[in-house]
Amino acid sequence: MFNLQNRLLTRYPLLWNTRIVWVGSALVLIHLLFFLAGFIDFGAASFKANYSLSSIISAGMVTFSILCSLVLLVCWLVFYLRNNAYKNFYIIDKYHLSKEFFIITLVLVFAINFFESYKWGGWLKARTITSKQQLVKEANTVNLAMAFVPTSKSAYFSLVNCNEDDPGRDIQYLENHDYFDSTAYDYNNMNNVIVRRALKNKDAFSYKNYCNEFISLKGYDGFISAKEWKKTKDRWSDNHETDSIKYILRQWMAVCNKYQVDQKLDIDELASLVFSDPNYNVTKVFPSNQYNYSTSAYYPNYFQSSDLEWALHFADSCQLGGWHRSDDLEVFTVELYVALCLSILLFSYRLFSRKTFLISTIGSIVWTILVILIGVSSELEGILWTCLLLSASFLGIALLMMRIQSSKALIGALLNWHIYLAPFIIMFITILIETNFEKKHGWFNNDEYVKQTYPVAYWIDHHIGLIFRLNLLLVFLYVTFFFTRLSKKWHIMPEE
Amino acid sequence: MTTIAGRLAEVKSYFDNGDIHVGYRRLLDLAIETQDSSVYESTLGFCNWYDAHGSSNTNESGSLNEQVNTLLEKISNAPFKEPATNSSPKLKTNQVGKTYHSGSFSLSSVDLSLYPSQIVGLVGENGNGKTTLLRLLYGELSPDTGSIEYHLSNIPKRHSFYDIKTRLSFIPQRPQKWYGLLMDNLQFTATHYGFKGKENYLWTEMICARMGLRAFRGYTWNRISSGYKMRFELAKALLKKPEVLLLDEPLANLDVLAQQVILEDLRFLAKSQQMPLGIILSSQQLYEVEKVSEQVIFLKQGKPKYQQTQFKPEEQVAIPLVIELETTASRETLQNLFKDQSLENISFNGGVYILYFRDTAQISDIMRTIGDARLPVKYFRDISASSRRFFDA
After folding, report:
1. N or C: which end of chain B has fewer CB within 10 A?
2. What residues make up the domain containing A421?
């Protein structure tokens, strides 16, 4: 490492100055450690505890990650800020500052989100535990087996069916509703009349009625739809195939055990219950919680169905992975914004004198407070317009003052304020366009505000993520190729 | 005898006569002039030997001479490049003036031309515009009147003032604190000025040795004294091979011996054949600056007075004799003593007398008179050609 650093010092001073080798190595190492931690930490039991990939990261993990970022960044800055060829008027190439900004941004992008690696470690482990094929197999098993594990009678109601064309699918059945209470206000409601008629059937809650998809997978080869497995289930019932039922239930239990789903059920009892009624009616329902809140007692037999549902949903969400998940992409975009803003702040410290930087940062706080105060007395639009106006004014005044060789410190501060606002300009413009089109072109219809969606607003609304991500690139290029030139002009200005 | 041959003989004589410290520095100057990697390597080997055995080790003195002779032979065989003959000024000011916005101070029109190998001294009391002039020359201040021209080589055709500043070196009175190791900082500077790889190491080591910083290569800012901080700044400036070096009070905070060494170093560095350097330095050490400067500009309340300190024989002109004298004798005694020596005026500042004579007066006559009268003299100096004359007694 020392030899490499020495080689960089005598050949590639920018790489040596930015300590990219060791900070890069440290970043890789820490990300790897977080990844491994995520991989090791995540187990089969974690499936039921997470509703999405992001939920793998606990608040404690985020705090620890931020702490690691701070320690690394402070150590890096101690070394990085030691030398500055630009401020010392050393000979530098045309793109020296652009390259430096790129390196700063690169370091910050990877230094602020170690928790992401933890997440991806967990993600990989989840996919290792349950592959795509396994998930399909488990989903098919669970969907079929759940027909023989009644946790509520409603799923077995005769009007429930899998025929998408059947108008009866719209009928609502509520398990605890008394449909025979003639005093009820909705007694004669069409829905209730139909339900009441169905309830009078002798196979109102037959196992054969069940065609509920406990877990629904989309875009998976081999996933068996409810319509298909219903036939199997009905055949087993009709043919009294207890062994087949027991077999699927054993497989189901294996899935439950894999994900450590809390349950206490007996397969023999479950299989025998299917045939306990001549019309295959459900005679016993198993609670989906061990604890009875009304009696404060514990059920002897129960099945924590939500655990299995969550576990399989989580396994499903892990199969998508990558950046196809919109929430992950949004989080990453926010991280990029944070990294870019921090890079700009650090870069301004590198480009401008300490005095100017101090004026700029304190001034930024003052401006922010003032803008917020303006915002209190006006709407969001007011704040956005003020920010746009300020950004343009800062640049305009700075250029004018540069031309007349006015106060160097003030010009530096104006340039800094301009660039501090740069990441948000397109964002503000986008929001302003969107809100203006929606507001001005809507109307009231029966006390309801109806928005007219104009093509521009519609396009923006549907591409807002893309716009925000493109903005990152634009701001990066703006700083790299335009702002560096401005700062160089500022740098050679005389003090007075 | 060629100039190089003369310098080789000069170095040899220093060592032969036991003036080892000055000989060591001149030897390094010569080695640097070769701009030859193999000479640099041999020189650094010699430096290692010198550091290990030291100059005071009399038992090794024979070995020292052997080492020196070997190195001198190697240097003599090195292909010296023909020195540049460009004698146009590198920096020129035309009636440059500056008034601060606060209006507290104003620097009047200064005319100055800095040639390669020339040292210009800026002297004057505090707050009289020395630093202002240096900052104007470095572009930290913009002149209100007049103009500054830079005629530096290796500047791109389409250049900004940044490019000019890369070729100027300015060492302020209080240099900025630097971080990290001394050697790393020097190598970092050298790399930006095109010294890559091994060449970088050799060049930096040579300048480090020349500035007496070898022992401090692994030191940080906090661990070195003010004198060595100044040497570090000089080393950093030299690594850039600048054509113009601006020094603001480089002698402040240095002890008397260190001041002499630094000034001597500056004189030799400026006279370098391969890398001639134009130096402008400000200082309160009037006599020391005058010793090494070709021209001295005395600034009083922002107004310049020019003093040529080194004259070519054809430029010699008769100038009035001015003597600075510290004695316990009274003014009357002095007036009586020198009444026959064309004494025109005496001024006294409580410590020393300044005696002004007509241009016909001879210093030898004055000294004879003092000797004959057995005048108790503590201090005597001819300041006829010194800007000391411009100071209030």
Report:
1. N
2. 352-496
Residues A481 and A449 reside in one and the same domain: yes
- A74 shares contact with chain B (CB less than 8 Å): no
Shared-domain flag, residues A212 and A241: yes
Whether residue A147 is found in the same domain as residue A98: no
Output helix, strand, coil percentages for chain B, rounded to the nearest 5.
45, 20, 35
Per-residue pLDDT of chain A (496 residues; tens, 9 = 90+): 668 888 999 999 999 999 999 999 999 999 999 999 999 999 999 999 887 788 888 999 999 999 999 999 999 999 999 999 999 999 999 999 999 999 999 999 999 999 999 999 999 999 999 999 999 999 999 999 999 999 888 888 887 766 666 666 677 788 778 888 888 887 888 888 888 888 888 888 888 888 888 898 888 889 998 888 888 988 998 888 999 999 999 999 999 999 999 889 999 999 999 888 888 888 888 988 887 787 888 888 889 989 999 999 999 988 875 555 667 788 889 999 999 999 999 999 999 999 999 999 999 999 989 888 877 777 788 888 889 999 999 999 999 999 988 899 999 999 999 999 999 999 999 988 887 776 555 667 766 766 666 777 778 888 888 999 999 999 999 999 999 999 999 999 999 8
Among candidates A406, A422, A412, A393, which has minimal Cα distance to A480? A422
Q: Is residue A217 part of a domain?
A: yes
Q: Which domains does chain B have, with CATH numbers?
A: 3-77 (no CATH), 97-310 (3.40.50.300), 315-390 (3.30.70.980)
Does residue A106 form part of some domain?
A: yes
Query: A313 and A356 share a domain?
Result: no
What ipTM was estimated for this complex?
A: 0.86
A206 and A312 in a single domain? The answer is yes
In B, which residues are within 8 Å of A85 by CB distance? 188, 192
Q: How distant, in Å, are the alpha carbons of A65, A81, A482, B141, B249 from that of A95?
A: 33, 19, 11, 27, 36
- Say whether both A206 and A296 belong to one domain: yes
How many domains is chain A built from? 3
| Beta strands B278-283; B244-248: pairing state | parallel
Inter-chain residue contact B191 with A9, CB threshold 8 Å:
yes
Determine contact: A11 vs chain B, CB below 8 A.
yes
Distance CA A176, CA A195 (A): 13
Residue A42: Cβ within 10 Å count: 24
